[in-house]
Amino acid sequence: MANSFGAKTTLTVGDRQYTMYSLSAVEKQFPQAAKLPFSLKILLENLLRTENGLSVRAADIEAIAKWDPKAEPDQEIAFTPSRVLMQDFTGVPAVVDLAAMRDAMQRMGGDPTKINPLQPAELVIDHSVQVDEFGTPSAFENNASLEFSRNQERYQFLRWGQKAFRNFKVVPPDTGIVHQVNLEYLARVVFVDEQSTAYPDTLVGTDSHTTMINGLGVLGWGVGGIEAEAAMLGQPVSMLLPQVVGFKLFGKLKEGATATDLVLTVTQMLRKKGVVGKFVEFYGDGLAELPLADRATIANMAPEYGATCGIFPVDAETLRYLRTTNRPESLIALVEAYYKAQGMFFAPGAAEASYSDTLELDLSTVVPSLAGPSRPQDRVRLDDVAKSFVDALPNLMAKSKSTALPVTDPNAANPPAPQSTGDLKNGSVVIAAITSCTNTSNPYVMMAAGLLARNAVAKGLNVKPWVKTSLAPGSKVVTEYLKAAGVLGDLETLKFHVVGYGCTTCIGNSGPLSASISKEIEAGKLVVASVLSGNRNFEGRVHPEVRANYLASPPLVVAYALAGKIDIDFNQEPIGTGKDGSPVYLKDIWPTFADISNAVDTSVVRSQYESIYEDVFKGDSAWQSLVVPEGNLYAWDDDSTYVKNPPYFDGMTLEPAPVTDITSARALAVLGDSITTDHISPAGNIKASAPAGQYLLAKGVSKEDFNSYGARRGNHEVMMRGTFANVRLKNLLAPGTEGGVTRHLPDGTEMSIYDASMKYQADHVPLIILAGKEYGSGSSRDWAAKGTRLLGVRAVIAESYERIHRSNLVGMGVLPLQYKPGQSTSTLNLTGTEVFTIEGLAAGIANGFADGRELAIKAKKEDGTEVVFHAIVRIDTPQEVLYYQHGGILPYVLRQLLKS
């Protein structure tokens, strides 16, 4: 390493010495660097430590030191994360790709064992459990058994990867949610390498909610699986030095408000502010009032408020949390000493950093809230939820009546469920789920749910019979402290039995409703609701039969399960009738701050974390008994419908083919605003009538064994057939339809998007997508980009992009183009029936876009007239230019390894 600034020094903690790269060495030359935001100081140290004169130069370090808070980002830096974090839905295809790279490496004459994670890579299996059974003492055991039987082949593959790849660990299923396991166990806060160099723990993760770890002062964010694979293989993450928005917190939450209410308020404020592509950093005296769990709740939802990260500094509360969660005392001492030595340890009254912009919130103004019915930033005060639902109902009913809703998942076991009551109506809550990483990491809101349940049981209240209830803790520690507080039994009395330890309802693994409930919804075209303590409530995500979806705190989830309807005014209407015949109101059972704090203080103890995480990688007997393939190369099974060798390296040569312009292209789809990766990437159940279902049936897979798209992410044949197949997708090229439908041109025949793609590709017709604002928002699903590429899409033209999906498109060799301000598909009078030619791409790539990042696009209409406009190339950095030239990140990395 170059060490141009003389930053390399020694830190002594106890009887051990560490090498560190001191920020003070830079601050002496550039005093303004002392006022850098906490997050940029982490990036500054990262560059000091990795300076090599090539990817990281002294000029890059100086650029951070002299950072102009108000400047538009234009300085590219190469960030090297300490580690990579994955969950199984995104992790399986990442490991599949690494296995395929080993095959390609051998085929092209290289050493396949060169393909290994160079940075520590940790995968937590948490996305595969589904709520098949609920409301019974055996729910967890039976759901876990079903999960294992459905996913055995995937799990065998991951265990092979754990043995075959160096630097790769897997946390087995039924342990916890990846972000909570990261917070409670995996995160180091200060990393120490084999040379005893100490530096901030940083990471990228294959899930957008990786940002939850920002609550612990660890800088990290979600990337696509494609970018994560490159990071694992030693490629730095190329990024523009961001603007940093400071969010000042002061005051204290009032009685009745929760961390969930706070994060929904923060999300709404930041969405309104506009922080896409920016860092958000929390500061102010209000931090002293926020336990680390509350900070993690706020950090978790950075994707929902649009920021790259939402970070809190390291302070005394960080140390307290590390001690509670059984981190070694030597690590806690190192964290304190390191951050104090770097001038990065936050204390009340500390001087404020320089920020690009600021906003502030008085915590005492936060009120109980929900978000819905379809977006996490659409916060509604609890007092106004009933009215907001009534106001939204006409639009929701119009959607409901326009579409034949699917009935229950035919693949699932028969869960115990209520028979038809005849009581369902618009607004009935049919799913009430305590779920997702956002809240189940937080002992305060979980304990609030338990105490509310205890109070409700004491009053003699019951959950309405049509409500599907579930409790999916983020880790097994949660169950331990709910037991210790004596409230787990009360939750179970209200049918909130533990259904699994993993992501369930929030990612669409809500499982089936009973057939009778489904039929009642279908017969009445009812707009029913779900209430979940999650972070995502996009259309079609939670359950295909549930149109209105509301995010809420865990205690409010229990409250709505008791009420059985979303259109209740808790101030005016009783939540139920007590055993004495008297009406019971929400205020009668809501626990106080004192009750919650006392339960947490007495029931959440260090020994719980010690016992749960003592042997976390071992797994249960089912995991241990898996028969695992041997060898450095994976033995692909041609008959497998779960894991297949992907085609990304087929026909690959040592040098990439020259980039050419895109000529005579057709639009595969014309899409509107807010198209999320949920709309693009396959997720949820596989319908027998869908192209993916037809493929599986042809392979001899029965409908009962279809499993989900998420479980089959390691099979590109299934996934490409499910891309753009979301039941709520509206393709304006096929008006009046909903789902993965398009028109093949020029004949105009209506067919599935997959079938049209195959027909176009057989005729060598390149394809494009036209879209509106916020294209690709939502989860960091790499298959949203992979599937797009495999369908033959060469370019996307959108009004704006969410950060991760734009990056993923480039990473798969798909060209992201952006309409110029004021222009759109509609203002240009484009219908999607045109023939498109994108000119200047080859020349632009060849000169690194030195002449500007605009390309001319000609759209020839059916009558021979032509619309000509210019679009902005969203290949944002020189490194991304290289990725695009090579056809994506993976071919680029493989070629570099072959040459080395």
TrEMBL record:
Alphabetical list of Pfam families matching this protein: Aconitase (PF00330), Aconitase_C (PF00694)
Enumerate the InterPro entries for this protein.
AcnA_IRP_Swivel, Acnase/IPM_dHydase_lsu_aba_1/3, Acoase/IPM_deHydtase_lsu_aba, Aconitase/3IPM_dehydase_swvl, Aconitase/IRP2, Aconitase_4Fe-4S_BS, Aconitase_4Fe-4S_dom, AconitaseA/IPMdHydase_ssu_swvl
Chemical reaction(s) catalysed:
citrate = D-threo-isocitrate
Q: Which cofactor does it need?
A: [4Fe-4S] cluster
Keywords for the protein's UniProt record, in alphabetical order: 4Fe-4S, Iron, Iron-sulfur, Lyase, Metal-binding
**Gene Ontology process terms (BP):** carboxylic acid metabolic process; tricarboxylic acid cycle
GO molecular function list: 4 iron, 4 sulfur cluster binding; aconitate hydratase activity; metal ion binding
Q: What is its EC number?
A: 4.2.1.3
Q: Where is the Aconitase/3-isopropylmalate dehydratase large subunit alpha/beta/alpha domain?
A: 67-564
**Sequence ranges assigned to domain Aconitase A/isopropylmalate dehydratase small subunit swivel in this UniProt record:** 694-820
**Pathway assignment:** Carbohydrate metabolism; tricarboxylic acid cycle; isocitrate from oxaloacetate: step 2/2
Respond yes or no to whether keyword Iron-sulfur is given for this record: yes
Query: Which family is annotated?
Result: Belongs to the aconitase/IPM isomerase family.
Q: What does this protein do?
A: Catalyzes the isomerization of citrate to isocitrate via cis-aconitate.
Name of the protein: Aconitate hydratase
**UniProt source species:** Tuwongella immobilis
Q: What high-level taxonomic lineage is stated for the organism?
A: Bacteria, Pseudomonadati, Planctomycetota, Planctomycetia, Gemmatales
